[in-house]
């Protein structure tokens, strides 16, 4: 029998709603997507930018949902199954559920934000903390106004460790989210030019990220990169929120969690670190120095949350890249193979530079080349053209042989690239597709990166469709 995530009485108390019909199935999960509903799910009819979940309530109930949370009721809905009517927007009802789930949780909670590395750090935390107890963490990048309460509402009552990613595009967005999460440990990975078009400066981004400290519970902790020039500003913000224990991490000699050495390999890192006076040597199953540095924040949080540090360090060997964030795949091509590095989920200057570093660390096969496929980095404001042009230096340092570029902003980089490195430039990723596919050959290493709005993901899928995956080595 499925574990009960929510009882009807708990839902009525949390939301103040009115039940229509009788709930016959144990409510074991929460969903906002009628296409993904499983038997016993609680379907929440959220109103999105393009669709209103109320239009799919009957479909969800007929697909097996045990209950639907709505703000308006129709005969079609009640004929399909039980519904819980709330007075306000169902999103407010989901938030109420999230707060109730957090209140009943007696485990330790960690929240993560930062301009770069939030999702990868969250996934490392999931792996590391799972070695010590039942761990619940955000799915994908569920870090916004609906993703955070949904993740909370999905948290089992027996959770020992909760891990939440919290994002923002504008000032003031983190504060209400972290007020729901109430973390014991809050991590800021770093401050970089992301969403810069919505802020006057990096100072504004730092202040917006520092909102995460406002929700930390009394006696909680802040974990901050010691390598960022904003360390003092962020530390002051943490102290202003009543946090007395600020733990720093990074390469900086004064960091409490310090990386002494790192050996970078194509698909992993080997790290020698000092974690608040405790020496550790461990293998991280993710490549890239930026991943190694963020693993220090993970180990800091593990120790501060009272979990087993040694087990966490061992578990990190099994960490894997999240979808669109460095997943590596060997594909067949013309009797040989190419290596595809999928970094297509999102992009800003810091994350593109890190992805180029991964490309530089990869070794092409015989006759192969390092190929960067880059799409526009969005929301950078007036600095966008210069920041795109500035990618030439990390691209050159990575030894990139060929650039394929998509978007008007990437034209600023394209103009700096010598003719021998030019693959193709197009205004859109779709317009670039055929020329990119025609230009690939055995031995190539291909890295794809760009903002979500640049639609670089479809290019990854086009490469996979044209070149079938090879069997993974065991």
Brief digest:
By secondary structure, the protein is of the alpha/beta class.
What report would you give on this structure?
It is a single chain. The model has no long low-confidence stretch (mean pLDDT 94). The chain is 32% helix and 22% strand. The protein contains 17 helices and 20 strands. It has a nine-stranded mixed sheet, with helices on both faces. The protein has a six-stranded mixed sheet with strand order 15-16-20-17-18-19, sandwiched between helices. Strands 1-5-4-3-2 form a five-stranded mixed sheet. The protein is globular, with a radius of gyration of 23 Å. The protein starts with 7 loop residues before the first helix and ends in an 8-residue tail after the last helix. The chain folds into three domains: 81 residues, 3-Layer(aba) Sandwich (Udp-n-acetylmuramoylalanyl-d-glutamate--2,6- Diaminopimelate Ligase, Chain: A, domain 1); 214 residues, UDP-N-acetylmuramoyl-L-alanine:D-glutamate ligase (3-Layer(aba) Sandwich); 140 residues, Protein-Tyrosine Phosphatase, Chain A (Alpha-Beta Complex), CATH 3.90.190.20. α4 crosses α6 and α5 crosses α10. By secondary structure, it is α/β, with parallel strands linked by helices.
Q: What is the overall pLDDT average? A: 94
Using DSSP, what is the number of strands? Answer: 20
Q: How does the major sheet shape up? A: 9 strands, mixed
Total helical segments: 17
Range of helix content:
25-40%
Distance between the termini: 35 Å
**CATH H-level superfamily of the largest domain:** Mur-like, catalytic domain
User: CATH fold name of the largest domain, please?
Assistant: UDP-N-acetylmuramoyl-L-alanine:D-glutamate ligase
Percent of sequence in beta strands: 15-25%
Structural class: alpha/beta
CATH class descriptor of the largest domain: Alpha Beta
Q: What gross morphology would you assign?
A: globular
Strand order of the largest sheet: 7-8-6-9-10-11-12-13-14
CATH architecture of the largest domain: 3-Layer(aba) Sandwich
Counting structural domains, the number is 3
**Rg estimate, integer Å:** 23 Å
Report the uncertain regions: none
């Amino acid at each position: 029998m499925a574990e009960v995530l929510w009882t009807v009485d708990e839902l009525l108390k949390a939301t103040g709603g009115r039940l229509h019909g009788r709930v016959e199935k144990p409510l074991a999960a929460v969903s906002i997507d009628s296409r993904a509903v499983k038997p016993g799910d609680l379907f929440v009819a959220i109103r999105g930018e393009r669709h209103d979940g109320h239009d799919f309530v009957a479909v969800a109930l007929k697909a097996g949902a045990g209950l639907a949370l709505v703000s308006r009721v129709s005969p079609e809905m009640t004929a399909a199954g039980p519904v819980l009517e709330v007075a306000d927007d169902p999103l407010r009802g989901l938030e109420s559920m999230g707060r109730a789930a957090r209140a009943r949780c007696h485990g330790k909670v960690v929240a993560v934000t930062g301009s770069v590395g939030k999702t990868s750090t969250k996934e490392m935390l999931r792996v590391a903390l799972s070695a010590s107890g039942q761990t619940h963490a955000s799915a994908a990048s569920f870090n916004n106004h609906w993703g955070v309460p949904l993740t909370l509402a999905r948290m089992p009552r027996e959770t020992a460790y909760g891990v939440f990613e919290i994002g923002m595009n504008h000032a003031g967005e983190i504060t209400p989210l972290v007020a729901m999460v109430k973390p014991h440990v809050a991590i800021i990975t770093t401050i970089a030019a992301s969403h810069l078009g919505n802020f006057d400066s990096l100072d504004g981004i730092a202040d917006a990220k520092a909102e995460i400290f406002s929700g930390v519970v009394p006696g909680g902790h802040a974990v901050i990169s010691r390598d960022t020039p904003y360390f003092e500003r962020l530390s002051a913000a943490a102290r202003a929120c009543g946090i007395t224990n600020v733990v720093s991490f990074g390469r900086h000699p004064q960091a409490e969690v310090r990386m002494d050495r790192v050996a970078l390999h194509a698909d992993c890192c080997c790290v020698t670190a000092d974690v608040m006076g405790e020496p550790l040597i461990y293998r991280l199953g993710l490549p890239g120095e930026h991943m190694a540095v963020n693993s220090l924040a993970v180990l800091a949080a593990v120790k501060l949350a009272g979990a087993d540090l040694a087990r966490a360090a061992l578990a990190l060997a099994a960490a894997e890249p999240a979808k669109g964030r460095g997943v590596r795949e060997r594909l067949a091509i013309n009797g040989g193979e190419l290596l595809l590095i999928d970094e297509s989920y999102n992009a800003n200057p810091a994350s593109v530079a890190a992805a180029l570093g991964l490309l530089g660390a990869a070794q092409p096969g015989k006759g192969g080349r390092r190929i960067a496929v880059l799409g526009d980095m969005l929301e950078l404001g007036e600095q966008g053209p210069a920041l795109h042009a500035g990618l030439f230096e990390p691209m050159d340092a990575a030894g990139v042989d060929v650039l394929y570029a998509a978007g008007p902003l990437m034209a600023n980089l394209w103009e700096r690239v010598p003719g021998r490195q030019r693959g193709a430039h197009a205004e859109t990723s779709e317009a670039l597709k055929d020329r990119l596919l025609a230009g690939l050959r055995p031995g190539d290493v291909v890295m794809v990166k760009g903002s979500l709005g640049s639609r670089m993901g479809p290019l990854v899928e086009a490469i996979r469709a044209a070149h079938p995956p090879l069997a993974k080595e065991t």
